[in-house]
Design goal:
285 residues, eight-stranded mixed beta sheet, 11 helices
């Protein structure tokens, strides 16, 4: 089994590193372990995750965009059936931020991420929370690369702040009893073309499940219904188009799968608290 050592990743000044992982169709990462704590944030796509905990139990479950979990030192894990997945690996020495997060020790999220010797769960972030976390991780990556004056303090503070945000969340129960690869396959279909209609009946057939079972498994895996997940994908696509193109609101609404601009504006404002136009203006300012 491959074992990764902290000396390969950490700088002398601070025990923090950010690396990236990706996998296209059906790619795998073999079972491996490390002597440092690893927090994994799935930014896009889906994959199947297997982890062997220090207590000896092994579980397998699916990961989708927005999922976060940890691998503690000495634990082993692997990925399989990757479908256009991209994830951040945040490597750090827990003792460095222990004082900042000790007030959360009794919260579900803390137990889901940092309790050794037991089967731990995952945390799932909403879209706007994913965007905020991804920006912070990119900031940390830049600071570690440029090493400007004060970067050690900045990285420690940014990491502690990101963890505090995560520890305020409720944890989602992981479940190793069922095979979720069919649901993960359907999520890949939805993510490749979120602007299209994806009737739940067709998705259930693709997953080789009954309609009711597919709905239950999808809800358990993602924390939302298939329709809610598809709307999230469309809104994420719309956010990108608002910030990266000069297309008007009506054009973006149709490109992203909304029936008209009024429906798009109403849905966007309900999710983000502002209209698409104001979202674009605020970002530009």
């Amino acid at each position: 089994m491959i074992e990764y050592k902290r000396d390969k990743f950490f700088q002398a000044a601070i025990p923090v590193a950010v690396t990236f992982g990706r996998g296209s169709r059906r790619e795998s990462v073999p079972l491996h372990k490390h002597d440092f704590l690893e927090l994994v944030f799935v930014s896009s796509g889906s994959t199947i995750h297997t982890v062997q905990f220090s207590g000896g139990r092994s579980v397998t479950y699916s990961l989708v965009a927005g999922d976060i979990f940890t691998i503690l030192p000495g634990e082993s894990h692997a990925y399989s059936e990757s479908n256009n997945v991209f994830y951040y690996n945040v490597l750090f020495d827990f003792h460095m931020i222990a004082d900042e997060v000790k007030q959360f020790i009794d919260t579900p999220a803390y137990k889901a991420l940092f309790t050794p010797g037991c089967v731990r769960n995952k945390i799932h972030l909403a879209f706007h929370e994913r965007i905020a976390l991804e920006r912070r991780l990119r900031d940390i990556t830049v600071e570690l690369a440029e090493r400007k004056i004060g970067y050690v303090q900045y990285v420690r503070s940014a990491l502690a702040g990101a963890l505090i945000k995560l520890l305020r969340h409720d944890a989602l129960a992981s479940d190793g009893e069922f095979d979720y690869s069919g649901v993960a396959r359907c999520i890949g279909i939805m993510e490749r073309s979120p602007e299209k209609e994806h009737p739940i009946e067709e998705l259930a057939r693709e997953a080789s499940m009954s309609l009711s079972l597919f709905y239950v498994r999808f809800q358990k895996m993602t924390g939302m219904s298939p329709n809610e997940y598809l709307i999230n994908l469309r809104l994420a696509n719309a956010c990108s188009k608002l910030l990266e193109s000069s297309a008007n609101i009506g054009e973006i609404a149709l490109q992203c799968g909304f029936c008209d601009s009024n429906h798009f504006i109403k849905t966007f404002r309900k999710r983000h608290g502002v209209t698409p136009g104001n979202f674009r203006k605020q970002f530009q300012l």
